[in-house]
Every structure is written in structure tokens, then in C-alpha cells.
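=== RUN LOG ===
request id: a7f3
mode: sequence -> structure
chains: 1
length: 218
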Amino acid sequence: MKILDVPQSGSVGGVTSSRNRFGQYRRTKAMPVNPSTSAQNTARARLAANAAGWRALTSAQRSGWNDLALSMTRQDSLGQTITLTGAQAYSSVNNNNLAAGNAIVSAAPALLTPSAMLTCVPTLTAAAFTLAVTPTPLPAGAKCLIYVSPMRSAGRAFESDFRLLQVTAAAAASPYDIYAAYVAKFGVPITGQRIFIKLRCYTGGFLSGQLVTSAVVA
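=== RESULT ===
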């Protein structure tokens, strides 16, 4: 049910408070489904490995991550800006490294702010799925992380369920062919369905802001 109240997020006594594009709401608390997919297991294994890696660092290395964390901010579920801890900074950077196919690092890197992807024009049919993007090629050492949604109704205008589908090579040139990877994950694109795409540029353990677009299967 919709409510007028101060921003709230979380569960108390069997009731969950949250918000969407229309404002605050409350609903009966539900236990989340745990399908234990390979992607979920991979993410959990990375978090466990990062926790173990943090414990194995030297005091000097942890101090470096603590210093880096002071410059790394995020927005929480209530829209408040928070500053990461050293352990969170270590996990964030190395989760990005692993997602991009790079090795984890023990020493804190210098803070980078990769430039976001500028444009993305999808070509999407039942037999092809390519992305024409700019900039092209990517800067030296930069990779593009490509996230996609499952197939949706063509009338849908908002998407929150993005899955990492493919990571380009460093300094890759456009266009990116993601058809085979999409079919392997979600099946052959169905004519009339909408697919959402999110692109983020990766450099040195850090991700750019996101570029989101979508296309209807022609």
C-alpha cells in the first residue's frame, strides 16, 4: 500500500517498507527466492574470497585501502550518500577486476573515474544482436561491461533486472556482437519483445556511470 511518511527501507515485524517511481509503499514481508544459480554462486564466492583476501593483507596495505575509501562514496537505499570502509573499497575494486577478467590487487590503486559510454545504437532481430557504440575504440586499457535484461513486454519503460552478459576486450572497437551470448543465457530473441541494455566502462578496478537503452526485437 502507498504511504506518506519519511523515507524508509527495510523490514520490521513482518512489514517491508520500500519505494518505487511512485513513492513510498509498504507490503507484507516475503522470504526471497534463492534459486542458487551459477551467477549467484560466482558472486557469493567472490565476496567470500574478498573477505579472506582482506584479512590476509598487511597493516600497510589495509591503511592504503582505508585512505582510498575516503574518496569512494555511494548512495544507499534511502538516497543518502555514504563513504565506504577500507574493506568495502577493497571488495568493490576487486569485484570489478574479477568481473572484467582481471586479477585481484592487494595494494590500493589510485582513484580513477572512467568516462561513461556516450552512445549505444542496438541492432536487434531474432537472428542478430549488435551494439554500435561510442567512443570507439575504447581508451587503452578500458573495457566495456555489457549488462542485459531478460525479454520484456514492448510496452515496458523501466527495468531493474540487469545481468552481466559480456565484457569486451581492452580498447575494443565498435560494434559489439552479443547475439551468441544472449541466446546462450536467455534464448533466441522473440519478435516484439523489448530487451534493455546497460553499458559501463571499466578501467583499473573502477566503473563509469551507466548508459541505459533498450530495443524491441524486429
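=== NOTES ===
The two ends are 38 Å apart (CA to CA).
The chain has a mean pLDDT of 92.
=== END ===
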